[in-house]
Amino acid sequence: MLNKLIGLFSNDMAIDLGTANTVVSIRGKGIIINEPSVVAVQHDRYGKDKILAVGQEAKQMIGKTPLNIQAVRPMKDGVIADFEMTERMIRYFIEKAHSRKSFIRPRIIICIPFGITQVEKKAVKESAISAGAREVFLVEEPMAAAIGAGIPVSDPSGYVVVDIGGGTTEIGVTSLGGLVLCKSIKVAGDRFDKAIMDYVRQNYNLYIGERTAESIKIEIGTAIKLEKELKIKVKGRDNSGLLSTIELGSEGVRTAIKEPLKEIVSAVKSVLEDMPPDLASDIVDNGVILTGGGALIKGLDTYLADIIKLPVKVADEPLLAVAYGTSNVLNQAELLKLITNE
């Protein structure tokens, strides 16, 4: 009873704590924060750290900071790589989202990758509690992605969701409010970026940074041959140390990201091979749904469908599917109980 009463005055929130972006929703208000998971830290001569910026402002500093300032991504491959910075980042987003007028600490639901260890789960919970949460619930990413993509997860019918995020790709099979099968691989958006950086260096002798590679991926990244090749001007530093500009085509990017795409397809096929026969017939009808930023790579649905011989479609708002799913769990008490088993 007391919890219900407290809940009336608390700005409960849902956090999609992603490798690339952190999205925060408030119950009844929807998404209010969508910023990169980056923290800019200044180191002074006494060995103390000072947070200069978090989110979008910090991301602008990547690759451009002086020696005493470092732009840190505390999440790596879908898990916490730097616990202190993650806690500071969560605290920043909670303080930014939570009403200063409210004295009641919020309940928070945090989305986590499938398969992280109990130690890592505990670290996420402790980070949120230290950052000001009253109570913390964890939801696995494939389930949140499925809910956000509009899949009726509580039905006795099987659905496959492939969430291609920044650090991990999660492939989940949902039925009756749970994950029947799931596989998580550390091949996703960051690997695409690195593959593009390596390709440009090896083929054009040009060194580019993460932000440039990400822009190339977004602008002309494709999994299939396009009818009309897209081109983009790319600036960087060549082998002689001089600044240079090249023209890069979508065919080059397709070649660059071919290997990471093959690894994702291989993981999808391994999940399909382990599918219980009764669920397999559902998947033939329902197909595969793509979510996450990686789903926006041009022609990825066609590329995957040609290989696995099943219908593949991209969710309506793939970038926000996990955030929407986490937010939906926050707003529905029965769904929260079903999904988190709490």
From TrEMBL:
Cellular location(s): Cytoplasm
One of the Pfam families matching this protein, by short name: MreB_Mbl
Keyword Nucleotide-binding listed: yes
Keywords: ATP-binding, Cell shape, Cytoplasm, Nucleotide-binding
Gene3D superfamilies reported for this sequence: 3.30.420.40
Keyword Thylakoid: no
Domain of life from the UniProt record: Bacteria
GO function term, MF aspect, one: ATP binding
CDD domains for this protein: ASKHA_NBD_MreB-like
Positions bound to ATP: T19, A20, N21, G166, G167, T168, E214, S215, I216, K217, G293, G294, A295, L296
GO biological process: cell morphogenesis; regulation of cell shape
Recorded family membership: Belongs to the FtsA/MreB family.
HAMAP family: MreB
Name of protein: Cell shape-determining protein MreB
